[in-house]
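Dear U.,

For the methods section draft, I wanted the exact inputs and outputs in one place so we can describe them consistently. I've listed the two proteins in the order they'll appear in the manuscript figures. Please don't edit the token lines directly; just add comments below if something needs changing.

First protein:
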Amino acid sequence: MRGIYYLLSRFYVLITFVLLEIFALTLVYKSHKYQEERFLNTSGTITGTIMEYAHGINTFIHLGKNNEILLKENAQLKQQLTLQNNIPIDSSLLKNANTYRFNYIPANIVNNSINKSVNYITIDKGTIDGIQKGLGVISSNGVVGIITNVSEHFSLAISVISVKTLIGVRHKKTNALGNLNWKGDNPFILQVDGFSKTLPIKKNDTIITAGFSSIFPPDLPVAIVKSLEPDESTSFFNIDVKLTNDISSLRYVYVVKNEKKKELDALEKQISNE
């Protein structure tokens, strides 16, 4: 690919030289009105065509680089927004959902599946980029998955569309806690368990990340309620939701790295060992 870019760059210079030659030839025909008009009309058409191709070549050369720059800038903006939200409203309250520092690593999706019971997404970032097992993966529209396997330059994330994936969520209006999971049927419809039938939950309500884990930041969009009905055998709703992400069409994602995850996990492990 680099060889192609190099050749195109060489042709771009050659095209510029040809245009200068055409301009010089116009001076030769200045003394004859008819020849001048014919030549200028012809050369104008040729020059316009050449410039169009030259512009297309130049755009192709720089398109990939520009996309990468925009992706990194977007990640930086997300990080800045998170840092702003990290300022506690009331320091006397132990509301630490926003006190973790999250960094965002942009990545391209190189492989993706949605038609299996356990689906995975492959991205082009690995250990060399700071990716580790257990990190969350999101897009600009919501939750995508969790990193499970990492090599030097690539990583696998188990998709949210997987029967093995369970993500803590909240009902945005009431802050009620529940779990997002997938039954393995329609890849575009998932389920939320744990919401009491006494809650005022309605169709089109928003489901967001719970914020009680070190994997995902709080308040990220997750899904929209599509249908709900009381479960006659329990005190909870049966709720179907549609993801805010279209996992099947994703091209770019962000790996969420919580810089305090190791400390938090170690602390909570002490409690589980007691």
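Second protein (the one for the lower panel):
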Amino acid sequence: MKKLSTIILYIVLFTTSIVWIYPYVWMLLSSFKPTNEIYGGFLPSQFTFENYKFILEAADKMERPFIQALGNSIFISVTVTLGVLVTSALVGFGLSRLSFKGRNAVFNFIIFQMIFPGFLFIVPLYVLIRNLGLIDTRTALILPSLVSAWGIFMFTQSFRAVPNEYLEAARMDGANDLWIITKVLVPLASSTVSIVGLFTFIGIWDNFMWPLIVVSDYTKMPLSVLLASFNMQYGSYLGPVLAGSVLQTMPMVVIFLVFRKYFLQGISMSLK
């Protein structure tokens, strides 16, 4: 009976996984089909790169620079990820290893801030960015995301788990706080660094609402927003739209396959 229930469970999980993965596989295969075959059979009768060629070359004539948008996405995602790692490590060190008045209040406020969804802060953030004159700039896409409450919480908890003896030994050798952070705490918290960096990069790469609000210049849009604008105006070009969607999602698929161990660690740590 137990063996039968296990088999049924595996069948259900396999069926569910097929349902989840089918849309992406269909999108991937359809991006290599001629336009007149997209709604035809599942497999293309002939593979063609015309849709990708259109996205990478012809779309520039329609004021949709996809190559530049891809570069924007990479630059913004990498910059924000590095910024979050630096600020989270510095603030996490202060909250975990320094004694100052109001430390617990600051930490509790960070936890309290994590309760609220990010879209609640969009209006005040937009007003601030507008008053600073940063609308339609890449800085508007980077600046609001350089500090992460979740990243600070993760680094604080990770640094607290490091034995005091390591820090005392480093100070006896004349190490300052910055040296301790970079040479002692961060290497010992390498799993936290990987998890925070991975989730931050994915979140920024997939971010859509904020860039849509603050950027209208096609040359400064990330790939996700530029692809949406192309789809709205040239939705009849279904093949190129699918090819652009593959270009948008492929980096995340590769990152997940390469770093899936850290991805699963992050999920398990979030549930603890």
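Candidate sentences for the figure legend, describing the second protein: Residues 65-271 form a domain with the MetI-like fold fold (CATH 1.10.3720.10). The chain has one domain: 65-271.

Thanks,
Y.
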